[in-house]
Design goal:
- With 333 residues, the protein is mostly beta strands.
- The chain folds into 2 domains: 150 residues, Immunoglobulin-like (Sandwich); 162 residues, Immunoglobulin-like (Sandwich), CATH 2.60.40.
- Helix content is 0%, strand content 42%.
- The strands form 8 sheets. Strands 1, 2, 6, 8, 9, 12 and 13 form a 7-stranded mixed beta sheet that branches.
- The two termini are 36 Å apart.
Length: 333
């Protein structure tokens, strides 16, 4: 990450002080190979033959002796860019902790910001504070009295790791009513169709809510049987069929219907849809073991409304018909 630190200045008198000094580092971990961008600003136009950029572990003040940062190596770095001037190259006299940038023409450099870009810099091997000393010279080999000086402090930091764990989850419930996709608010596990008639279709509905972070989504399967009364069975629709009054039928789907008026289409921001055979308005089916809804990707909350229809003819034996249906949700991690 870039590190921007304010400048330090020597108390020794020089022509002027470099201002707006900064150093940005692409990777500030110990011993990492990084990109260094060194920037500063000249107060006035100057004829500059060379710059010296030196790294020390003890002080940014140029009049003090420099302690070489352990493990740091700038000797293999490449000068990849320069702005505010041109024609400078890494020259002889550079070493593992110093760059001398020279232009044999010694041009006039205009006042304002200057940036040098380097790649392939090896950071110091230990975490801590370090310093950059900046000097400009009229000579082309960084000798003689400096024209300008400045300093920068920067830090090398050991990396730290942040980790967490997202557990797999499957959220699922079935009930007559599930408000706001909240299984804790669900209510009802019993549907009473009342007295059946050969002249009209009995209809009712229940709801399912599901969510999962499973990579390959989920399936919802149906388990149970058609309604029975003793040995008498109300025939189920084993293939997709419309509701027909005065025929023995028990079926369901997971969409909004108009014949009869019952049910609703799925709702919620999650993914998934009713399965084939249960996804057509006014077409019903009931086969235990069938998948009634599914998704092939993770899903936020999705609510399905299951619509049930019953029709009978005049030959259906009397009795109290009942069944227990179970919905099983399976997440595909």
């Amino acid at each position: 990450m870039p590190i921007f630190i304010a400048a330090f200045f020597s108390s020794v008198a020089f022509g002027s002080l470099l201002t707006q000094n900064y150093l940005s580092i692409s990777d500030n971990q110990p011993s990492a190979t990084s990109i260094y961008n060194v920037g500063f600003s000249l107060a006035s136009n100057e004829t500059i033959g060379s710059f010296e950029i030196q790294f020390c572990s003890n002080s940014p003040i140029v009049s003090m002796s420099c302690t070489i940062p352990s493990g740091m190596d700038v000797s293999g770095a490449t000068l990849t860019g320069q702005s505010g001037l041109s024609g400078y190259t890494i020259a002889g006299g550079s070493n593992t902790y110093t760059w001398i940038l020279s232009n044999p023409v010694a041009p006039v450099v205009n006042a304002g910001p200057i940036v040098f870009n380097f790649s392939g810099v090896v950071n110091p091997s230990s975490a801590g504070s370090y310093y950059v000393r900046l000097e400009t010279f009229a000579s082309t080999n960084a000798t003689g009295s400096p024209l300008d000086v400045g300093g920068i402090a920067f830090s090398i930091n050991s990396a730290f790791t942040v980790s967490t764990y997202v557990p797999p989850y499957l959220y699922f419930c079935s009930a007559v009513q599930i408000p706001n996709y909240d299984c804790n608010q669900s209510s009802g596990s019993y549907i009473d169709f009342g007295n059946l008639s050969t002249h009209s279709t009995a209809a009712a509905s229940s709801q399912l809510v599901i969510a999962t972070n499973a990579q390959n989504g989920y399936i919802i399967q149906l388990s149970g049987s058609s309604l029975t009364s003793g040995n008498n069975v109300l025939p189920a629709l084993t293939s997709p069929s419309p509701s027909i009054v005065n025929q023995d039928q028990f079926g369901m789907n997971l969409v909004s219907n108009t014949q009869p008026i019952v049910g609703n289409n799925y709702q919620g921001v999650g993914s998934g849809a009713p399965a084939s055979g249960y996804n057509q308005p006014n077409i019903f089916k009931f086969v235990p073991g069938d998948t009634v809804a599914s998704s092939n990707q993770p899903s936020d909350y999705r609510q399905f409304t299951v619509s049930y229809i019953i029709n009978i003819n005049g030959n259906q034996p009397p009795g109290i018909y009942a069944t227990t249906l179970t919905y099983v949700a399976i997440a595909n991690f």
